Amino acid sequence: MESYSPVSKWFHWVTVVLMAVALPVGFVIQHVTDKQEGATKMVFYAIHESAGVTLFLVVLARLLWRLSRGAPPLPGSIPAPLRLAANTVHHALYALLLLQPLLGFFATNAWGFPLQGRTAYLGFIELPKFMEANEALAGQLQTLHTIGGWTILVLLVLHVGGVVFHQAIRRDGLLLRMV
Ligand code: HEM
Ligand code: HEM
């Protein structure tokens, strides 16, 4: 069975690590309360937003690599419905991995909290702000960002569930293609 290239594997597992930071921290932020002028909460914002922007850059590079090099074909033993399911989930993940950070980025701009000062990218890179504060727009972008977060969670359950299904039930060793 043909494996993904080392570069593709590297991209995949870096994506996993960044997602393991961005997604849980995103869900947690709203529950962080602190009395020191929001100092602790700002750290959560900084981590979430820096992980998310980095994820965006990594996924952009990953997609360019994927589009130019392709992926190893799935083994012929895998039935058509499973191929369709896997491809659908992969496409949806790629689309949301690009869309979700953009929604977050423009939401922070619209809230009037661009990635500057205490939430500068990686703590020291001030990203430009694209608009003046606009609360109505910010609320809409934030709602889409929340829907995006839950959709990614569902897709990941399907994705990892798929891998477990291949390992435990079909026992076809598909996981080895990505490790
Ligand atoms: C793929 C990357 C990202 C994922 C998976 C993600 C996921 C999430 C999730 C799940 C939430 C909680 C939503 C809720 O329960 O209402 C959230 C909140 C938020 N995210 Fe992201 N996010 C990503 C990238 C970004 C980026 C790049 C930014 C900004 C530059 C950003 C800014 C925010 C903000 C401002 C909130 C609101 C936090 C709050 O005050 O409760 N996100 N994100
Ligand atoms: C423990 C977690 C994970 C495991 C075990 C895992 C495993 C795998 C495996 C085995 C494949 C190859 C499927 C094949 O043979 O065609 C794959 C592909 C893929 N994974 Fe994951 N994955 C995990 C988490 C994630 C996460 C968090 C993301 C994104 C947020 C992700 C996105 C993708 C994408 C987009 C592909 C398709 C690659 C391509 O064909 O271009 N995975 N994963």
Could you describe the 3D structure shown?
The protein has a single domain, classed as Transmembrane di-heme cytochromes, Chain C (Fumarate Reductase Cytochrome B subunit). It is elongated. Helix 1 runs antiparallel to helix 2, helix 2 crosses helix 3 and helix 3 packs antiparallel against helix 4. The protein has helices spanning 6-29, 39-69, 80-111, 135-170. The mean pLDDT is 96. By secondary structure, the chain is mainly alpha-helical. The protein contains four helices and no strands. Residues 22-23, 26-27, 29-30, 48-49, 52-53, 55, 97, 100-101, 104-105, 107-108, 115, 145-146, 149, 152 line the site of one protoporphyrin IX containing FE.
The ligands found in this model are: protoporphyrin IX containing FE
- Characterize the main sheet: none
Uncertain segments of ≥5 residues (pLDDT<50)? none
Kindly provide the name of the CATH class: Mainly Alpha
CATH architecture: Up-down Bundle
Shape: elongated
CATH topology, which one?
Fumarate Reductase Cytochrome B subunit
CATH superfamily: Transmembrane di-heme cytochromes, Chain C
Query: Please, what is the average pLDDT?
Result: 96
Number of domains: 1
H/E element order: HHHH
Instruction: Count the DSSP helices.
Output: 4
Q: What proportion strand?
A: under 5%
Evaluate the radius of gyration: 19 Å
Q: How far apart, in Å, are the first and last alpha carbons?
A: 13 Å
Question: What is the helical fraction, as a range of percent?
Answer: 55-70%
Structural class: mainly alpha
E-strand count: 0
